[in-house]
Amino acid sequence: LSPEVSYVIHRALQEGIPNGIRHGKSRRFEFSLEAAEGRIRFRLKDDGAGAERIVPGFGLSAMQDRVAQLGGSLKIETGPGRGCTLTILIPAA
Asked: The dihedral of CA 16, 21, 23, 29: what is its sign?
């Protein structure tokens, strides 16, 4: 991976895990990183409480900006009782 992609992945883990613990009371996380079809796919899923909706704070907004700078996308899936899943897709260099 390029240094830029590695940095985005590292920072997403640094933000995603503490957020899951702090806001969702998560105790378990599943992480995957795959390269396929010309893109890198990052996925971080937790077993937390989930939420009706996510209001991005500084950390998630910064994550979105970093991903967008690389031409990628960030998707957050959650719901009450369903935990939270962060999916980042970044074009492979």
From this structure: positive
CB atoms closer than 10 angstroms to residue 89: 17
Tokens standing for residue 82: 């369903």
Which CB contacts under 8 angstroms, 24+ apart, belong to 60-69?
Answer: 60/15, 60/19, 62/11, 62/15, 63/8, 63/11, 63/12, 63/15, 66/7, 66/8, 66/11, 67/8, 67/12
**Could you tell me which residues are beta bridge partners of residue 76?**
86
Cα gap 82→51, rounded to integer Å: 8
β-strand partners of 88: 42, 74
Q: Enter the pTM of the model.
A: 0.92
pLDDT in tens, 32-41: 999 988 999 9
CA neighbor of 88 nearest in space, from 43, 32, 34: 43
